[in-house]
Amino acid sequence: MAWPLFRSFVLVFSILRMVLSYDLVRDYSGLSFYDGWDFYGGYDNLTLGDVVWLNIDDALGQGLAYVNAAGNAILKVDNMHNVEFNQKRNSIRITTQAAYAVGSLWITDMVHIPYGCSVWPAFWTMGPKWPDGGEIDIVEAINLMDHNQMALHTLPGCIHSTPPNQMGLSKELDCSQPSGCVVAETAPNSFQAGFAAAGGGVFAAQFDVAGIFIWFWSRPNIPPSILHATSSSPIDISDWGPPSAGFPATTCNITQFFSPQNLVFDITLCGIWAGLPAEYLPVCGNSGPTGICYNDNVIGPGDRYNDAYFEIKYVRAYTTGGIAPTPTAAAVAIATPQTMTTVTQRPVGTALIPSPLFYPGGARGGLKHGEVMTLLCVALGTMGALLWRL
């Protein structure tokens, strides 16, 4: 008689877990943070910024990528050297070796985001065949902006329709435009000095067949589920509330426009957004005598870039299905050069049905609260019948 009762308890537990949890598949943190990332090692030929993104040996050797005494990963622009005219300043771009498919969730806790005149930082994702495989901008802003912007970039045919519970402000709606389909964060302290002064915060992105959803919480407002999560535990998003940006699949077929995504951190300078006169001059035109982004910032001494760094507690990748990526290197010592090998991974996250954790409003995916209660009542009723028979 005990065995059927045990199976009923397992059924209830499985239902609760299905409703509440994503499984952790990779934690990037501490001394092993840089395991599983590739360093770009070349000029910025993507956004035409005035930087050279270093390879891993030069990045570690020059102190632009390291783990600090707090155990946080640092990615920074060179602020120690003089740059001559017609030269570029050294910086960092890293990309995960693992690609994460539909059914994935990413969370990053950061203490500091790069900012300053000419500075253009981003935490984003891209498909292996960029730009055809889509792009998700989770953290991106320029110069002295005081708020984060979130966006999707796709081939023509993906349109942003604003869901009623989106907390951010929709701007461009056509995701194939150069800017992508953009949502501006409205919560305070999502970028610049305010972000750092508040102790940083957490960003999360849900990559689901039902849509792409992005959240931001300043340090004082981080949900308990994230505060209590560990580097090995699943994550419960039921206390997250409405997203900052919501891109529902009703007007953008996610599996059509997005392939499995690699995660990317980079910092560039000037380029085709931060250096545009219309963007640069109103806030940074007095940075130097010429009014030109490159001339007045990139060249000369580097101390103007003292705030141009990421400080990252962790990046965690979760999935509703699939397999975890296999680490490709041992943990690295602080600022110790190493060689990383690029490997081909099976994409993580394979769910092609709406995740039960998708949060379009009051419902989470295909399971609304009433449906969840129905499933629980069925399981509890089974347990009750077994107990009565005992």
Automatic annotation (TrEMBL):
<keyword id="KW-0378">Hydrolase</keyword>
<dbReference type="GO" id="GO:0009251">
    <property type="term" value="P:glucan catabolic process"/>
</dbReference>
<keyword id="KW-0732">Signal</keyword>
<dbReference type="GO" id="GO:0016787">
    <property type="term" value="F:hydrolase activity"/>
</dbReference>
<dbReference type="InterPro" id="IPR013320">
    <property type="entry name" value="ConA-like_dom_sf"/>
</dbReference>
<feature type="signal peptide">
    <location>
        <begin position="1"/>
        <end position="21"/>
    </location>
</feature>
<dbReference type="InterPro" id="IPR050546">
    <property type="entry name" value="Glycosyl_Hydrlase_16"/>
</dbReference>
<dbReference type="Pfam" id="PF26113">
    <property type="entry name" value="GH16_XgeA"/>
</dbReference>
<protein>
    <submittedName>
        <fullName>Glycoside hydrolase family 16 protein</fullName>
    </submittedName>
</protein>
